[in-house]
Amino acid sequence: MTWPITGSTGLGSENSRNSHSKKRILTESSSVEVAVPRDRSGSFEPQLVKKGQSRLPGFEAKVISLYARGMIQREIRTHFEEFYGISVSADLISRVTDAVIDEVKAWQTRPLDQIYPVIFFDALFVKVRDEGTVRNKAVYLAIGITMGGTKEILGLWIEQTEGAKFWLRVMNELRTRGIKDRLIAVVDGLKGFPQATNSVFPETQVQTCIVHLMRHGLSLCSFKDHREVAKGMKTIYRAEAAANRLTEFEQFWAAKYPSIAAGWRRNWEEIIPMFAFPPEIRLLIHTTNVMESLNRGLRKIIKTRGHFPNDQAATKLLFLALKNIEKRWKAAPQTHSTAQLRRGAQQDSHIGHSDA
């Protein structure tokens, strides 16, 4: 009813509200009880569920859409009650969203391309109830850059801890799903990642995120020196003779900030792969910014939740959120750097003849 309320009557009318009538409406795979407003004269015509209507198309899609935006069950129920006059049970909402699980399983096992010139790996953390205790769990994500230059989310994995054993399982899964050898994996200090990756993909070049390395370096120095220290670190990864630039940086800041250069040297084997490529390709692979952008979008969705009841609930929401994010990703024009990576991949006979 759309009348302003004065007692139980409609303003300027002899008519008035007369409670609700209940009817059961069929959705795509279930039924829902609808509370339809009534008036005393019988002239009210409901708009969402019309008189005589017995089916409600699009209901489940609407529930999933609201869930994907981060709404919890209580908020979804309130939304339907306030906007549509529909009483929706928590059990029905749970059944509708649980139907996504089969889609998640299919997505997690779908075949992948043979070649992704670059794959980015990163993690964000969510709170999940596990064995009666709320724990911080890592959600690991992988984004591949396709041969056409577009982004594709390859998978997500929820784990309590990371390590070589976990990453070995992930790499074997990616290989089973169709990825061949020879790719660049861009990461930010994921424990056990290089060893596990190279045991499955021996030709993979593991590239550490330079931006994260620079941020760590800046955290070790005084704020007043940030500009000069950052300038010095940039000369390292932008130089052709990077090792010489690192030595110069180390000597210049040795007395004041010796730990900065030491951090670069500890990670040197994962820093140097990008120096085999021209500067324009280095800009593509020297940072996990593409992952950070994705993670920001996911955090907006999950920030209103205290914690998830289990891993499956977290996976459902993250999967739906990722689907929405991928829809917004438009096929980017092929950049010069991507084109060069593509030519390099196509010319690599090792890829072309790898066993599945």
How many structural units, i.e. domains? 2
**Portion of residues within helices:** 40-55%
Low-confidence parts: 1-9, 351-356
Shape verdict = elongated
Succession of helices and strands:
EEEEHHHHEEEHEHEHHHHHHHHHH
Alpha carbon gap, first and last residue? 63 Å
Tell me how many strands there are.
Answer: 9
Q: Counting H and I runs of at least 4 residues, what is the number of helices?
A: 16
Approximate strand percentage: 15-25%
Mean pLDDT: 79
Cα-atom Rg, whole angstroms? Answer: 27 Å
- Secondary-structure-based class equals alpha/beta
Taking the sheet with the most strands, its summary is: 5 strands, mixed
Main sheet: which strands, in order across? Answer: 7-6-5-8-9
3D structure, described in words:
- GO terms for molecular function: DNA binding; transposase activity.
- This is Mutator family transposase.
- Keywords: DNA recombination, DNA-binding, Transposable element, Transposition.
- This protein has 356 residues and is of the alpha/beta class.
- It folds into 2 domains: 94 residues, no CATH class; 216 residues.
- The chain has 16 helices and 9 strands.
- The strands form 3 sheets. Strands 7-6-5-8-9 form a 5-stranded mixed beta sheet, with helices on both faces. The protein has a two-stranded antiparallel ribbon with strand order 1-2.
- Helix 7 runs antiparallel to helix 8 and helix 8 packs antiparallel against helix 9.
- The N terminus and C terminus are likely disordered.
